[in-house]
Design a protein that fits this description.
With 305 residues, the protein is an all-alpha fold. The chain contains twelve helices and no strands. The protein has a domain at 16-59 and 255-305. Keywords: Membrane, Transmembrane, Transmembrane helix. The chain crosses the membrane at residues 28-48, 92-115, 127-150, 267-290.
Length: 305
């Protein structure tokens, strides 16, 4: 008969098995963290996807920056913040993506490093304290990156903000004072003042609507209207933001872009929903499997030691 020792479990085999299980658990946790990060980005994408898609076609649902036509000369054009909607939003979305990933993963790395210190190792045995530490690290990293993001803004942007800022009366703005004595066509003045009123927070509808109506009449009656250098996309945004419809031929000229943006917007919306559902299921599955493997490892280690 075979010796009883032949049926005994080899401790070395058990230890190698435990190491393999721990490796699998770590891989599952990494997959869970990755899928959760994608989930968070996708959820955030639902809130900005329309603006992102519209900006891809040079459009915006709201007036977000001042467009100064070249017809007024260089005196004011130098202040015009002429950066593209898409570039601005891409930069903002890129920073958001960076902050989410860096803060999420950086917080885990911070906890991992701190656990090597005896003081934190003892306290992080509590899940609540470990979570609080992770949350603090997340907030610190996010705040640091946010500071860097806004610190990198150039002085030209601040000049632009000063140009359109006013409290209650638009005539108090630096732009209105620049236009007061300038030899500029009334339609151009209305174009600039309407944008200034719409950039005000909250939007100054009482000032913006009359100025946009002047633009609508000028497009019908002014033979030089097309020479002023107005941006059709900006006119479309102004009219739709104030009146929820397109009222003039120049604004209507971007209707093809609007139709394409609507189609792409719906595609991106459903794609994001699909990604959210899939990544949510994957994250749940990964974390559940990792939790079960961890429990199994604990039971095996208790039997060995």
């Amino acid at each position: 008969m075979p010796a009883i020792d032949e049926y005994a479990l080899n401790p070395q085999h058990l230890e190698s098995g435990v190491k393999l299980l721990k490796k699998r658990q770590r891989n599952l946790m990494l997959l869970g963290i990755t899928s959760t990060s994608i989930l968070l980005v996708s959820v955030m994408g639902l809130f900005v996807q329309q603006d992102f898609v519209y900006s891809f076609f040079g459009l915006s649902t709201q007036v977000e920056q001042l467009h100064i036509p070249s017809s007024i000369g260089e005196s004011l054009t130098s202040f015009g913040y002429q950066s593209d909607y898409f570039v601005n939003l891409l930069s903002w979305f890129g920073w958001l993506f960076l902050k989410i990933f860096a803060s999420f993963i950086g917080a885990f790395l911070t906890i991992h490093v701190l656990r090597k210190i005896k003081f934190f190792s003892i306290r992080f045995q509590s899940f609540v304290l470990k979570f609080v530490g992770w949350l603090v690290a997340f907030i610190v990293i996010w705040s640091g990156l946010t500071y860097v993001q806004y610190d990198l803004r150039d002085d030209h942007h601040q000049e632009y903000q000063q140009l359109v800022r006013y409290d209650k009366n638009i005539q108090d703005s630096a732009l209105a004072q620049e236009l007061r004595d300038a030899e500029i066509a009334p339609a151009v003045k209305s174009y600039l003042l309407a944008q200034t009123a719409m950039l005000h927070r909250p939007i100054d509808r009482a000032t913006a609507i009359p100025q946009v109506r002047v633009l609508i009449q000028a497009e019908k009656n002014d033979p030089h209207f097309l020479d002023y250098g107005f941006k059709p996309e900006q006119l479309w945004t102004m009219q739709n933001q104030l009146f929820n419809q397109t009222l003039t031929p120049m604004a209507e000229s971007v209707s093809k872009q609007v139709a394409q943006a609507e189609i792409l917007n719906r595609v991106v919306y459903w794609a994001l929903l699909f990604i959210i559902v899939v990544t949510a299921l994957i994250s749940m599955a990964m974390f559940i499997l990792a939790s079960r493997i961890k429990s199994r490892v604990i039971r095996i280690e208790q039997r060995i030691y």
